[in-house]
Design goal:
3 helices, Ribosomal Protein L30, Chain: A, binds L-tyrosinamide, alpha+beta, 3-stranded antiparallel sheet, 98 residues
């Protein structure tokens, strides 16, 4: 029996990376340095030394980039920071920049 000829259309799959947004941590006068380091380790998976460096940078400059994430992840991180800070009674804030 003759083999069937199957014409297959080639499909080109384009995988687009989502745009990334900066999660920025803001300095304040009340949150303890120790707590900021704990937030950076817990929520942003930084090592103790990375977290300490970022915290000191934010403390000195007023704000600093913590990481780059797709928008939904960035929003979730900001909420987690505010939730963890609120529970501990600190005014620590984070924001998102393009
Ligand atoms: N400025 C705070 C202090 O002197 C420490 C601090 C650092 C707070 C970074 C917030 O994002 C921050 N205790």
């Amino acid at each position: 029996m003759a083999e069937k000829t199957v014409m297959e259309k080639k499909t080109r799959i384009i995988v687009k990376r989502p745009p990334l947004y900066k999660v920025v941590l803001l300095n304040d006068d009340y949150t303890t340095m120790e707590f900021v380091v704990a937030v950076l380790m817990r929520i942003f998976h930084k090592s103790a030394s990375e977290a300490t460096q970022i915290m000191l940078d934010v403390h000195q400059k007023g704000k600093g980039i913590v990481g780059l994430y797709p928008l939904d992840i960035a929003r979730a991180k900001v909420l987690q920071v505010e939730q963890m800070a609120g529970q501990a009674g600190f005014p620590l804030m984070a924001s998102i920049e393009e």
